[in-house]
Amino acid sequence: MTTANPHDRIVVVGGGIAGLATALHLAPLPVTLLVASPLGQQASTPLAQGGIAAALGADDDPALHATDTLQAGAGLSNPDVAARVARAAPSCIEWLVAQGASFDRTASGDGLILGLEAAHSRRRIVHAQGDRTGRSVLEALIHAVRKTPSIQIMENHRVTDLALDANGAAAGAFCAPWGSEGSEEPILIPGRAVVLATGGIGGLYAHTTNPLTAQGGGLALAARAGAVLRDLEFVQFHPTAIAAGLDPMPLATEALRGEGAMLVNSRGERFMQAVPGAELAPRDVVARAIFAQICAGERVFLDTRHVLGEHITSKFPGVTALCRAAGIDPIRDPVPVRPAAHYHMGGIKVDDQSRSSVEGLWACGEVASTGLHGANRLASNSLLEALAYAAWIADGIRGMESRPSMVQPPSPSFAPWHRSNSRNQQSLCLQQIRSVMDRQVGVLRDAAGLHQAVRHCSALTHEARSIRERDAVLVSLMIATAAYSRNESRGAHQRLDHPHLMPEQHTEMTLDQALRIAAEIDNETAAPVRRVA
Length: 533
Known about the structure:
Mean pLDDT: 91
Number of helices: 14
Structural class: alpha/beta
Distance between the termini: 49 Å
Radius of gyration: 22 Å
Helix content: 25-40%
Strand order of the largest sheet: 7-3-2-11-18
């Protein structure tokens, strides 16, 4: 086994906004930043078009922002967390500006331009370069990280397992370079704390806006270390992914609907008109309405022509470029759209400083379940959450006592795993996972489909040949199991066979508990499986 770096370092896993912000807030403490790709690539942050929510307008207040967050969260958002994050939002924007980020300003330059998105009661979305907020912010943070001497960056290294000490506390990470052979020994990166900032799970679905590498690797790492996971069944499907045959699917930002763009079907009917909030209803509502149209044989389009016309090229240059790359001219034609897996509200259960149930293990961003998003994330709260918790994580780690620890050797089962040389290679196993998750654990669910998903994923656990496949199967199985266990419809989790709400309750499970529940489900008699679009 190869060992790198002193034991007093903090290991941060992930190169998106959550990982970069955490590393910067930890300075001048020594940090090793482990990134599975070249920094700036394969992260979800640059795909974030909407922006960052912050109550900055004269008619706005953090309390209103928190109220909107709770309303979207469908009863499972923590009011204290929502209030705390909303209060922190303005200072998060100020911190980004100090790091070199530049946001869109009014003509006078005195104030920030504030956009409106679904389920927000005020204009409070801060943008950079129109619809290129994520990419702009990420570039600024990468520049800041590269010039921070306390941060060591290890690019093209995939974390394969967490290192635990004799007491089960996180004490570093085992990693391997991409393209290395399975016979190579793992590299041990020791650290007194580990922060997982590994992003989401959209790559487990056949229709997704996420990088295809977003397959829940951080959830698998935490689960194998014994961490408690929470609300894994809540997967947000963005209503308006551009349906042009691309994988992953380009995104038509919600801000387009904030500017007045309308949803119409093949017959030109504006089917959202009678729904409270219309096109600006919460994402789960809009996604289900679009999905119902598709199941009825209709195609769905986002029509920006009447409200934006040629101005779409200047106000939304990113969307314009994505459309044209797919052969669509949004100035002349409505944009074909459909729901796609976009954001995971569930994750590693953490406390108010983002500490997991495993000592020394922290989580930031989409991989964490902080209590902010509940059953359905409010638009543009994701980057905000990562920024707020990055600062609180750094404060918590600074207050930790340094603890010498002896790392347990890697599991003997590590060696036989094959490592794929391609990040985007889609093996037959991964293709099956994506198909099953999309069809049976998607926008609409029922017991028959979820039962089939659990059985299929359970069978695939014996077929996974690579670490990537192992993790993808494991996370898919846990999501399907959590969805089967929640017998109600709430937020982004909609059960056709259980349309009503039950008393508010979180789903919490460890890996051992999930596997036991999955085995029980697998042994149940399956009902006939429905067919979905």
